[in-house]
Design goal:
Blueprint (H helix, E strand, L loop, with lengths): L2 H4 L13 H7 L6 H20 L6 H8 L3 H28 L2 H22 L9 H19 L2 H9 L5 H26 L6 H22 L21 H9 L2 H29 L5 H29 L2 H22 L6 H14 L4 H12 L4 H25 L2 E2 L13 E2 L1 H21 L5 H10 L2 E2 L3 H4 L3 E2 L1
Helix pairs in contact: 3-6, 3-7, 3-8, 3-9, 3-10, 4-5, 5-7, 5-17, 6-7, 6-10, 8-9, 9-13, 9-16, 12-13, 12-16, 12-17, 12-18, 13-15, 14-15, 14-16, 14-18, 16-17, 17-18
């Protein structure tokens, strides 16, 4: 008589001998040293971001001390983007091929060297010329360090943390960058009250880089722990760099993520860069614009922390990303409306907070999603291409939005100075671009969680066959 018809309850028969994969699973463990690696990356990321934005909050004082124009001071921030675009491919290869330890130590030394060069360039001296050139050179060295740091969080989380903590670790490391931007926006104006205080300000930023460099050089003993914390960590970066690039360019889901989230990063960059110029037209002060920028970052960090914990438990990367994409687009549309209205401080501050909470917070989740849809391509390669896409689109968006501005003949509420521009059309275009990229992502993006599936295949390496056909399970 057929066993399937004898009993409606089927019993799975499994060999008592564990498979090779299951034995390997028993060796997966985590090490307390992972928290030191995470702390080191956070300090390095935060310091590098502070160096990037050092001069923006004190542009007038910096221009006066260095005897250059405001446009020249703006280039101290833009150089980060100029350096990042061509060099990110090389640093992605280095991180996946040479290893995390060498990359972080080199990044910490370059970060320290650039910060010290900036300070030396501002030292007063009789007949000293070319101060700005030395400061710019130091800034460029720090920009080179950024390319070694900015997409390291995904790699670090994959190598050192178990699957139940990866998104949280990635979130903490990634959000240390905007935390650095926030701290710089507070420290720079507080210290550089006059142009003569610029050297002291740069010394304050250079001192921590020496400590971080020492910690990295002495404390970073290996790229990975002695034994992997998860199944996927064993094959992290197993695909050769060039072959990995070819796989990414043939991966439709990854290309949709590359273009759409790159557009989202560009909108974020435009918002951060142009916020003060947009708000001053309607009479909002620089202090208020700074407060809105701070709210944007603070709520983004809070949102990222909550999302990181949630996706670690639920693994719902796609659902979280699509919902937050839509909500951040609504926030962008709302900002394009309320920022054109005078005397609406509460509404403007609320919209900036919501934009940060929904939009800025999904960055680490998307970095994890990029790995899930491209596995087993190296984490630095998949995250690095998305970063490059964001940088390229940021440059294009800023040029486009600035080109669409028109000069206003009269603006009685303006606090902008001599030149007053209308941002109505650029804001509507920015909202339209954000809406377009969100629609494309929501409609066309779908993927399997390849890394999660690979880990589950190892964790649950016993597959059930057709009971009626075979009568027992097959051990894989």
């Amino acid at each position: 008589m057929d066993s399937c018809s004898e009993d409606s309850t089927e019993i799975l028969t499994v060999s008592m001998h564990p498979s090779a994969e299951l034995k390997k699973l028993l060796s997966f463990k985590v090490y307390k040293r992972r928290w030191f690696v995470l702390l080191l990356l956070c300090l390095l990321n935060c310091s590098n971001a502070m160096i990037w934005i050092t001069f923006a909050p004190v542009a007038d004082q910096s221009a006066e001390y260095l005897r250059v124009t405001l446009a020249d001071i703006n280039w101290l921030s833009v150089v980060y983007m100029v350096v990042a675009i061509p060099l990110s491919f090389g640093t992605s290869w280095m991180l996946d091929t040479v290893g995390l330890r060498t990359t972080l130590i080199l990044g910490s030394w370059l970060n320290m060297l650039g910060a010290v060069m900036r300070f030396v360039g501002t030292l007063p001296g009789e007949g000293f010329r070319g101060q700005f050139a030395v400061v710019m050179a130091g800034q460029a060295v720090c920009a080179l360090a950024q390319t070694l740091i900015i997409f390291t969080p995904t790699k670090m989380a994959a190598l050192w943390f178990p699957d139940s903590q990866r998104a949280t670790a990635n979130t903490i490391a990634s959000m240390s960058n905007p935390l650095g931007i926030l701290l710089a926006n507070i420290i720079s104006p507080a210290m550089a009250t006059t142009s003569a205080r610029i050297p002291a300000l740069l010394l304050a930023y250079a001192a921590p880089t020496c400590i971080i460099c020492f910690l990295a050089t002495v404390g970073m003993r290996s790229s990975a722990p002695p034994t992997p914390p998860s199944a996927s960590a064993e094959s992290s970066g197993s695909e050769p760099f060039i072959h990995g690039l070819k796989l990414l360019l043939r991966n439709k889901a990854y290309l949709v993520l590359l273009l759409c989230f790159g557009s989202g990063m560009a909108v974020f960059t435009c918002f951060s860069t142009l916020l003060e110029q947009i708000l001053c037209v309607q009479g909002y002060t620089d202090d208020f614009a700074g407060q809105c920028g701070a709210l944007f970052i603070v709520f983004g960090i809070v949102g990222a922390g909550l999302l990181g914990l949630y996706v670690d438990k639920s693994k719902k990367f796609i659902e979280v990303t699509k919902i937050n994409f839509c909500l951040s687009t609504l926030s962008t549309v709302a900002f394009s409306v309320v920022s054109l209205m005078p005397r609406q401080k509460v509404a403007v501050a609320a919209v900036c907070s919501l934009f940060g909470f929904f939009g800025f917070s999904i960055y680490p989740v998307v970095m994890e999603l990029s790995v899930e849809c491209s596995y087993p391509v190296g984490e630095a390669t998949s995250a690095g291409l998305i970063f490059i896409s964001g940088q390229v689109q940021s440059a294009l968006y800023i040029l486009l939005l600035q080109a669409l501005t028109t000069r206003l003949a009269d603006s009685p509420l303006s606090t902008c100075g001599d030149t007053v521009l209308s941002w109505r059309v650029p804001l509507l275009v920015m909202a339209g671009l954000c809406t377009l990229s969100t629609c494309v992502f929501v409609i066309f993006f779908n993927t399997r969680y390849k890394r999660v599936e690979a880990e589950e295949q190892v964790t649950y390496g016993i597959k059930e066959n057709n009971y009626c056909g075979n009568g027992e399970a097959e051990e894989t």
